[in-house]
Amino acid sequence: MDQRFAELIKDGCEQQVMMAGGSGSRHTPYAKDSYHSAFINLAAFSRFGVSHPNFIGLLAVQWAGNMLDDWLPDYLAAAEFGWTPSKDEIMFRSCFQRINEHLNILPDFSNPNPNEVDPHAWDAIWLKDGKWDRDILKELK
């Protein structure tokens, strides 16, 4: 832990803090915790910041590459928790279902067009119905 952390959480501290909460990827390439664990972790950061007026937001960070398709629900959960940290227990199932319903409205999420989606943003893999489908880098060359 950084030695300044104790200073940042003291009453009256005016140094603004942007928390960096992740999905618990364990710093291992191409690995991340379950959505349930990620949501709990992100919510915990938001709850922590509520009692500290100088904690101004939550930055969702990931460490395992460009697997954005796996992380989009986490980013949306982080945004929601960051704006409205709940004191109540996170009802994971309903939260995850609502987020996925919104994501599945977007064609780029549910069935991305390889000609419109930056291959690097999708880790060179085209998704279909939210699942890994085929490598698009070979098709685009």
List the helices and strands and how they pair.
Blueprint: H1 5-8, E1 17-22, H2 35-50, E2 55-61, H3 68-83, H4 92-103, H5 107-110, E3 125-128, E4 131-135, H6 137-140
Parallel strand pairs: 1-2
Antiparallel strand pairs: 3-4
Helix pairs in contact: 2-3, 3-4
Query: What is the subunit organization of this protein?
Result: single chain
Question: Outline, from the CA principal axes?
Answer: elongated
Low-confidence stretches: none
> What is the ordering of alpha helices and beta strands?
HEHEHHHEEH
Q: DSSP strand (E) fraction? A: 15-25%
* Number of β-strand runs: 4
Distance between the termini: 46 Å
Per DSSP, the total helix count is: 6
As a whole number of angstroms, the C-alpha radius of gyration is 18 Å
Counting structural domains, the number is: 2
What value does the average pLDDT take? 77
Main sheet record: 2 strands, parallel
What structural category arises from helix and sheet content?
Answer: alpha+beta
